[in-house]
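Ops channel
N.P.: pipeline sanity check, posting one input/output pair.
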């Protein structure tokens, strides 16, 4: 990953300056969340983020409310390749918790887009989120060790995924495009939870349409398959392999020239595929329903004020339901 990032930075700075166009955007938000353990998974449940961020066992949830600060910076540079427009960017994001500081973490993504033709774009993305703390979980003892008393240790995961898309403008609709989307990723857990290491792949379709100057609509569907190492270790009875259906709808409304409203509704179904006897996930599933609403006010060409609310409900068929409510205020700026 460091070599790849170094290459991206080198391209950013060595691209022809006479043609290059720089853009720097920043974002700063302050959140109130009623469950620090579920906050990150709720924030990333969208088609452009990581909607299948690791499932949270119910015993790890209900960690109390918190105030979370989110800094974000995004640097992009545009330049031509073979006479066609190309854009390359690096985006860094962090979540800093006031009380539950063990949940502090950051992520980095590298994004690129290239005009294959005037109506067709190639999209690429790499995402890296190291050492995300999920909570203190029970270690699964091996039968041959003779240990009967479960130990409790920190559960952390590092995520890498690579995503690509092909965006095509719909000929009969000048303000609409369809995106064929796919990704491949790895979730690698620290010891002693390595049986949850997962390889996953995703395929999906997004449709973006602007029926009028003041309305923007987007729909998305993903199918994902994840295979964990636990399927080869039946003695641990902890196979988190799954198939996933993710459906999302978004609407962006321009109420006035400066004031706008964004709304989104997401649904996710996880079907556990373990066949191991004694595994609590055998024959079980999880449903997630989430709604988001946000407002933004454009102060001037450089500054935008934002605020919003989101609520999520998660229910595994063999456990009690979990909820997470988040509210925030913040600002975005660009130059």
């Amino acid at each position: 990953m460091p070599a790849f990032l170094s290459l991206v930075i080198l391209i950013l700075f060595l691209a022809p300056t006479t043609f290059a166009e720089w853009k720097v955007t920043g974002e700063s938000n302050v959140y109130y969340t009623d469950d620090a353990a579920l906050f990150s998974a709720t924030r990333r449940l969208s088609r452009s983020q990581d909607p299948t961020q690791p499932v949270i066992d119910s015993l790890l949830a209900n960690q109390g409310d918190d105030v979370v600060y989110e800094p974000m910076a995004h640097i992009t540079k545009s330049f031509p390749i073979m006479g066609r427009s190309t854009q390359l960017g690096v985006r860094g994001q962090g979540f800093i918790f006031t009380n539950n500081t063990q949940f502090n973490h950051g992520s980095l993504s590298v994004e690129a887009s290239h005009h294959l033709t005037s109506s067709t774009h190639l999209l690429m993305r790499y995402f890296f989120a190291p050492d995300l703390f999920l909570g203190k979980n029970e270690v699964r003892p091996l039968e041959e060790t003779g240990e009967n008393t479960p130990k409790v240790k920190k559960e952390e995961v590092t995520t890498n995924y690579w995503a690509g898309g092909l965006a095509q403008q719909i000929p009969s609709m000048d303000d609409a495009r369809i995106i064929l989307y796919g990704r491949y990723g790895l979730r690698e857990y620290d010891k002693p939870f390595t049986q949850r290491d997962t390889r996953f792949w995703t395929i999906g379709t997004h449709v973006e349409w602007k029926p009028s100057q003041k309305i923007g609509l987007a729909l998305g569907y993903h199918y994902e398959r994840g295979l964990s190492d636990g399927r080869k270790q039946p003695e641990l009875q902890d196979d988190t392999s799954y198939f996933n259906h993710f459906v999302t709808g978004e609407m962006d409304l321009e109420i006035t020239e400066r004031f706008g409203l964004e709304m989104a509704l997401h649904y996710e179904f996880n079907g556990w595929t373990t066949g191991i006897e004694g595994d609590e996930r055998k024959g079980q599933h999880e449903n997630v329903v989430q709604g988001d609403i946000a407002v933004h006010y454009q102060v001037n060409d450089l500054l935008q004020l934002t605020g919003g609310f989101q609520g999520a409900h998660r229910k595994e068929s063999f456990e009690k339901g979990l909820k997470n409510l988040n509210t925030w205020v913040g600002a975005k700026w660009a130059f």
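N.P.: looks fine end to end. The two ends are 28 Å apart (CA to CA).
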